[in-house]
Amino acid sequence: MMNNLNLDIAYYFTKEQCSFERAVQEILIQLNFGNCTPIRFVFFGTPHRSTDYYAELAILKEKVVAKYGAKSPVISYVSQEPLCNNSLALEVHSIEISTVRDIQYHQFDNTQYITIEDMKSKNLSLGGAFANNFNASIFEQSKQIFEIIKRILDKEEMPISSIVRQWNYISQITCINKEKQHYQEFNDARSHFYNQSIWPSGYPAATGIGTESGGVVVDLFAVRSKGENVKLYPLDNKLQVAAHAYSQEVLVGQEDKAFKTRTTPKFERGKVVNSLDNALVYISGTAAIRGEGTLAETDIKKQTIITLENIEELISISNLKEAGVEIVEPTKIKSLRIYIKAARDYEMAKMVVDKILPNVPAIYLRGDICRDNLLIEIEGIAGN
Questions:
Q1: Which pLDDT tens digit goes with each residue over 138-178?
Q2: CB contact set of 260 (below 8 Å; sequence gap of 6+)
Q3: Topology (CATH) of 3-383
Q4: Domain ranges in the chain?
Q5: What per-residue confidence (pLDDT) applies to 384?
Q6: At what angle are helices 50-68 and 20-30 packed, to 10 degrees?
Q7: I want to staple 369 with a disulfide (CB 3.0 to 4.6 A). Which of 64, 80, 108, 374 is the partner?
Q8: Half-sphere exposure of 263 (CA within 13 A, CB side)
Q9: In what order do the strands lie in the sheet with 102-108?
Q10: Per-residue pLDDT tens for 288-322?
Q11: Runs of H (alpha helix) within the chain
Q12: What is the C-alpha separation between 246 and 253, in angstroms, rounded?
């Protein structure tokens, strides 16, 4: 079985009202991976200024390296408040490596990444890519980050189109500065980057979500198959217009000068990594959108229900088979990341999720959504 299909997600929290350094130590003490190897740490905290963000990121890296040394997982720090009175949270991605032929740990400038290779594929996990100047425009930060990613992919002989999952964290995502919306600036920079490649298996699954500080930060996972052992499939959703096919009416801000239009968000509703009869489904950030319009604009309960209905349709056997995925058993959601615009909506959203998807590991975060009238966004990973 392919190692990328053995991905395990776990969440760790601290409620200690203490220094940031102590909170990091309290979380790291909890970690025990057994036969698995951690490849990605995503910390969530509440730095209110970018200077605080980078100071705390330095502490995170120092503590993780002290524990894991040269074999540290890639580290990301996301400026989003963990809900339910948690001061710091950690999401861990780990894998079984019993059949891995080669695992390598790399540093390229300030960006960590790990390559995992066996006879069937080469996988790349990259975390915490950011620009040198967080005071630059969102477009310029994004452009610099994508240049770093391109150089890493070139070095590892992996095309841009090998990216299967991307997380895009954008400070003040709906902010408009001089008629330029932050999210639209990021989308334009991403369109320029993706325009350098052809996409035979569709765009990546992705999330574009708001943060309080830290500028632009990008994480990603890429897969290059060797032969026909691993296949990649884009997932559409009949309930929603593909994000990359949105009309200009739902985009905000100035037109990109080169494209002479506001470019669309270049991601699929989901992406499947398929090996034999096993499928891992990356569920993109999903919200209460039908067609390309927002539903139930002021009702967190209804938006949560609609969002989960969209996810249910996306990962259904019928939708997977329509996409060409060879699958027999239904996929089950393994983990969820749930972003809520207003902390007051946390309890209602959690009640709905727990009723519809009981016992699914989930983390709840306060994060701005890419539209002003969206109250919640949910992403996840499913498998069979």
A1: 999 999 999 999 999 999 999 999 999 999 999 999 999 88
A2: none
A3: 60s Ribosomal Protein L30; Chain: A; (3.30.1330)
A4: 3-383
A5: 78
A6: 40
A7: 374
A8: 22
A9: 102-108, 111-117, 121-130, 216-225, 163-171, 205-211
A10: 999 999 998 899 999 999 999 999 999 999 999 99
A11: 20-30, 50-68, 138-155, 182-194, 300-314, 317-322, 346-356
A12: 14
Closest CA to 179 of 263, 264, 256: 256
Q: Are 206 and 172 in contact (CB under 8 A)?
A: no
Q: Which residue has the tokens 């058993």?
A: 329
Q: How far from chain centre, in Å, is Cα 178?
A: 28
Host H or E run for residue 164: strand 163-171
| CB 306 within 8 Å of CB 240 | no
Please tell me the distance from the alpha carbon of residue 378 to that of residue 85, in angstroms, as a whole number.
20
CB atoms within 10 A of CB 277: 12
The two structure tokens encoding residue 205: 């699954």
- As given in the structure block, the two tokens for residue 145 are 């980050």
Structure confidence by residue, pLDDT tens digits, 351-380: 999 999 999 999 999 999 999 999 999 999
CB 92 within 8 A of CB 381: no
DSSP string, 38-93: EEEEEEEE---SHHHHHHHHHHHHHHHHHHHGGGPPEEEEEE-EETTT-SEEEEEE
DSSP annotation of 213 reads S
Query: Identity (one letter) of the amino acid at 264?
Result: T
Residue 34, SS3? coil
Length of the chain: 384
